[in-house]
Automatic annotation (TrEMBL):
InterPro entries: AfsR-DnrI-RedD_regulator, BTAD, OmpR/PhoB-type_DNA-bd, Sig_transdc_resp-reg_C-effctor, TPR-like_helical_dom_sf, WH-like_DNA-bd_sf. It comes from Lentzea fradiae. Belongs to the AfsR/DnrI/RedD regulatory family. Keywords: DNA-binding, Transcription, Transcription regulation. Residues 1-105 bind DNA. GO terms for molecular function: DNA binding. This is DNA-binding transcriptional activator of the SARP family. The keyword Hydrolase does not apply. The keyword ATP-binding does not apply. Residues 1-105 form the OmpR/PhoB-type domain. Pfam families: BTAD, Trans_reg_C. GO terms for biological process: phosphorelay signal transduction system; regulation of DNA-templated transcription.
Length: 282
């Protein structure tokens, strides 16, 4: 297949990249890049022109904004499909709808779609008790994460809202992956990453909990108690709250010298007396 015929591939989980075959074709003009990134974040969804204008011009749009947008759309269509425009055919990837646009991408054309699908498959496997498969899916998904999403485009804060949402999805994926690691008894491999995450996201109580469990698995029960003391301090400094009932119960369990891993499915950590873990929240 000639490069000219290759469908474009988009990556948003890190710096924004568009490629066709082995060739990079990310537009260099900032507004064209931002337009494509915005449409990629909402691939296969209708995105109204008004929303694009608001986001690209930060609610400070000149009268000429819509006309300028039409120009950008034409330009990025040529980037995505070289040679497009010779006929009057509609564009194969970026379609016009009444007062808006849709970027139509197959799952393999966008890293975000694969990331979410792998994450979903992992959760399904985990719920079915197949933590081995879940771990493979989570690990593959994490490989797609190259750093802060759209880092090169977000100096204006244009994508703050989207980036915050994606980072939350990423943290939830990490949390699930640590659960399946703990289930396999591999807590010692997670200690270092968890220590860092507890510092960076002190209000994600599950990370403190996982760190304590990981330290127990690494036969570092005294460090697990120290981790609790640190969690206590971080939570009260950052949020003015005490650790929740799960964390307190886990602390007590370790103090009593009991084994926190006393059930077949250790990721569920159905510890006696521990309230069930919430789903989808820290
Ligand atoms: Zn499990």
């Amino acid at each position: 297949m000639a490069t000219e015929d290759e469908p474009p591939h988009f990556r948003v989980l890190g710096t924004f990249e568009v490629t066709r075959g082995a060739r990079r074709c990310t537009p260099s003009a900032p507004k064209q890049r931002a337009l494509l990134a915005l449409l990629a974040l909402h691939a296969n969804e209708f995105v109204p022109t008004s929303r694009i204008v608001d986001q690209l011009w930060s609610r400070d749009a000149p009268r000429s904004a819509v006309a300028a947008l039409h120009g950008y759309v034409t330009a990025v269509r040529r980037v995505l499909t070289p040679g497009w425009g010779r006929s009057r055919a509609s564009h194969p990837v970026l379609s016009t709808r009444p007062s808006g646009y849709v970027l139509r991408l197959e799952p393999h054309q966008l890293d975000l779609t694969r990331f979410r699908e792998l994450s979903r498959q992992g959760q399904v496997a985990m719920a079915a008790g197949d933590c081995r498969t879940a771990r493979e899916k989570f690990t593959t998904a994490l490989c797609l994460w190259r750093g802060s999403p759209l880092a090169d485009l977000n100096d204006t804060g244009m994508f703050d809202h989207d980036v915050t949402r994606l980072e939350k999805e990423y943290l939830e994926l990490l949390r699930n992956r640590f659960d399946v690691m703990l289930c396999a008894g591999d807590g010692h491999l997670a200690v270092f990453d968890l220590e860092e995450l507890c510092q960076t996201y002190p209000c994600w109580e599950r990370f403190h909990e996982q760190l304590m469990l990981a330290l127990c698995q690494a036969e570092r029960r005294a460090d697990a108690l120290t981790a609790y003391a640190r969690a206590y301090r971080l939570l009260s400094n950052q949020a003015g709250i005490e650790p929740g009932p799960r964390l307190k119960a886990l602390h007590q369990l370790i103090l009593n010298g009991e084994d926190p891993f006393d059930r077949a499915h250790r990721h569920e950590r159905a510890l006696s007396g521990l309230p069930p873990a919430g789903t989808g929240s820290p």
